[in-house]
Amino acid sequence: MTDKPMNVESFNLDHTKVKAPYVRLADIKTGEHGDTIYKYDMRICQPNQDHMEMPALHSLEHLMAELSRNHSDKVVDISPMGCQTGFYVAMINHDDYDGVLELLEATLKDVLVADEVPACNEMQCGWAASHSLEGAQQIARDVLAKRGEWSQVFA
């Protein structure tokens, strides 16, 4: 590990000191026309101890990407982390942390009652065979069960 700060914010985060699940503001970028992007780290699994299995993560990504937009037009993107421990949630012109927590809670509750994974077919998805609605719903249940802990990032 180097003392020089890295360009990627999360590479500067000590992953041994965090306690998942949590949601933290990871970055803020302001565009030349005044729009501001707020990037949140929605950590679901404890880094280097647990991870989401790919079919469940993939389905949760589809579900959250689609269903979150029923609650806010400020969602820019919900992207899975390559380490399979969480998602990045990008919002435009929305700096209300509690509002983001409410959005994520409502979205995960929607996941629990979903009867299918949106866009889970070869025409709309790049790996349609890799999905698990039941797995996504189990992750949502587990994360919602710890809703009171989401704002506590460090152990």
TrEMBL record:
Gene3D superfamilies: S-ribosylhomocysteinase (LuxS). Fe cation binds at residues 58, 62, 125. The keyword tRNA processing does not apply. One of its GO terms (biological process) is quorum sensing. Binds 1 Fe cation per subunit. It catalyses: S-(5-deoxy-D-ribos-5-yl)-L-homocysteine = (S)-4,5-dihydroxypentane-2,3-dione + L-homocysteine. Its EC number is 4.4.1.21. InterPro entries: LuxS_sf, Metalloenz_LuxS/M16, S-ribosylhomocysteinase. Its cofactor is Fe cation. Keywords: Autoinducer synthesis, Iron, Lyase, Metal-binding, Quorum sensing. Pfam families: LuxS (PF02664). GO terms for molecular function: iron ion binding; S-ribosylhomocysteine lyase activity. It is an enzyme of class 4 (lyase). Homodimer. Belongs to the LuxS family. PANTHER family: S-RIBOSYLHOMOCYSTEINE LYASE. Involved in the synthesis of autoinducer 2 (AI-2) which is secreted by bacteria and is used to communicate both the cell density and the metabolic potential of the environment. The regulation of gene expression in response to changes in cell density is called quorum sensing. Catalyzes the transformation of S-ribosylhomocysteine (RHC) to homocysteine (HC) and 4,5-dihydroxy-2,3-pentadione (DPD). This is S-ribosylhomocysteine lyase. The gene is luxS.
